[in-house]
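User: Just a sanity check before I run the rest of the batch. Below are the structure tokens for the first item. I only need the designed sequence back.
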């Protein structure tokens, strides 16, 4: 890495009034990548070094690095610093997609999600299998590394506490609703009434049987609301 040329790229942008200071830093690093002054795997100047060379505030430099991280161009490694993660400077967003498992439903969801994201967006897929330890580990190890977190949550107070550590403006909850503090985005299903209505539609067929067994594994990935709707439907008919 040629640090001198990197700092020169940033200084050259300082005379352009259209750029704010943090934009000068972001574009300076991108220009340095495009001009091959830095490359994938290189360690970038620390915040303190950037402060000394540019005279910019710590908050400004931190904001620039966070933007580059959210785009997947830079990655932060604990206690080791900031590194160039890719040579693709056209990449606009890096997405963490955390879902239950790659079953038929989740695969369909992933394909539709990926197909509608557009170009220059990186998606990394993780699976928690409704296991809280795995869920917590994945989120804790990836905090601050993505511009968007799309998560199919686990229904527990412990899982809520983990989710609330993520920036709400970068969080999208999918599949099932969980009540978190503050405002956040979600696209979820409604299970109880939808399942109950399905049982109602199947009622004529169900009545043909003398016994109806519903298999439901506690603490599984299946929503509890489905079991509630099953009991609600059959208890009314006992």
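Assistant: Here's the designed sequence for the first item:
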């Amino acid at each position: 890495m040629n640090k001198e040329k990197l700092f020169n790229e940033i200084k050259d942008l300082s005379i352009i009034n259209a750029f704010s200071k943090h934009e000068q830093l972001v574009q300076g690093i991108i220009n340095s990548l495009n001009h091959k002054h830095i490359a994938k795997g290189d360690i970038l100047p620390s915040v303190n070094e950037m402060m000394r060379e540019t005279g910019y505030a710590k908050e400004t430099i931190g904001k620039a690095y966070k933007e580059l991280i959210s785009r997947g161009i830079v990655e932060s490694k604990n206690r080791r610093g900031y590194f160039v993660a890719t040579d693709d400077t056209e990449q606009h967003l890096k997405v963490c997609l955390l879902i239950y498992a790659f079953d038929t439903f989740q695969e369909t969801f992933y394909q539709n999600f990926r197909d509608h994201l557009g170009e220059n967006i990186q998606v990394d897929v993780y699976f928690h299998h409704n296991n809280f330890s795995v869920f917590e580990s994945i989120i804790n190890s990836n905090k601050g590394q993505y511009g968007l977190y799309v998560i199919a949550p686990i229904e527990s107070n412990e899982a809520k506490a983990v989710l609330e550590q993520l920036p709400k403006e970068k969080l999208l909850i999918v599949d099932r609703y969980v009540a978190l503090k503050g405002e956040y985005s979600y696209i979820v299903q409604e299970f109880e009434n939808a399942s109950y209505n399905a049982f109602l539609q199947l009622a004529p067929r169900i009545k043909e049987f003398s016994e109806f067994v519903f298999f439901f594994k506690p603490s599984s990935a299946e929503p509890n609301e489905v079991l509630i709707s099953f009991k609600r439907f059959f208890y009314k008919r006992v």
